Amino acid sequence: MDKPWLKRHTKALDRIMDEELAQWHFDPTKKVTEYIVVGNIKSAVGPEWDRIVRFAYDMDLTIEKSSIFDFTRSEDEDEDIEIIHNTDIIELMGYDKSSASQFKTYSDIYPDLFYPILREFDLDGPTGSIIHQKPGWVCPWHYDMFNFYVRKYRVSDPKLVRRYLIFMEDWIWGHYFLVGNSVVHQWRAGDVITWPYRMRHVSANVGLTPKLTLQVTGVCREDSAVLTRSASLAGCPASPDPADGDESPSR
After folding, report:
1. 127 in a domain, yes or no?
2. Stated pTM of the model
3. 234 domain-assigned
4. Where are the alpha helices (DSSP H) in 84-166?
5. Which residues, other chains included, contact 32 with Cβ-Cβ below 8 Å and sequence gap of 6+?
6. How confident is the model at residue 233 (pLDDT cuts 50, 70, 90)?
7. How far is CA 246 from the centre of its chain?
8. Over the stretch 30-48, which tens digit does the pLDDT of each residue have?
9. How far is the C-alpha of 126 from the C-alpha of 227, rounded, in Å?
10. Looking at residue 87, which CATH number applies to its domain?
11. Is 251 contained in some domain?
């Protein structure tokens, strides 16, 4: 049934579906696991883990807050996430600088801090970033474009780039991550997940404490069957297991 009164509320979603319908099912009733559980990295990192977590907590004192709305269209080419291209319509849906904010820093700024993490990943050109989200902050539905990474490391195809998300603290109420149709929660500190290229995802903190995550980005080596040097982590799968069931990262 046509609902013209609804159109002004669904402009962003309608545009996304028109442009990407051939790439994903866009069926909210489909019960599938659309992310890949990689393993847990905490024990492999060892005592350095606590130092990295403490740094992440203190980022609200040491790192300048940023937002997707800080970028202009002239800078789009350098940005990793698709949502930068659609900030105008995203803003119409209700997001603003205060809600779409984060504290974020990178491994090229703090190489010694990231080294205990990056050394575990058997990747070409590994880079990292830490994201600190305050309660009430979200990163709206988007996919990663890897524009900057592809250009910097001269990667022939962005599909070769893999991004891994590491949860830095045990899950607590109000901290959520959505990949496709799959809600990720009840994770343990050090759990690692990934997802297919161009899979849309959301990070949200609607809890009462900071949400801390660390991203690792790189290219899987063709001559390596394993993702990391740690025996606790799995290999580099090409696609998620479509089976239904528990969607929490394995312990």
Report:
1. yes
2. 0.88
3. no
4. 87-92, 111-118, 147-153
5. 180, 181, 182, 240, 242, 244
6. low
7. 20
8. 999 999 999 999 999 999 9
9. 12
10. 2.60.120.10
11. no
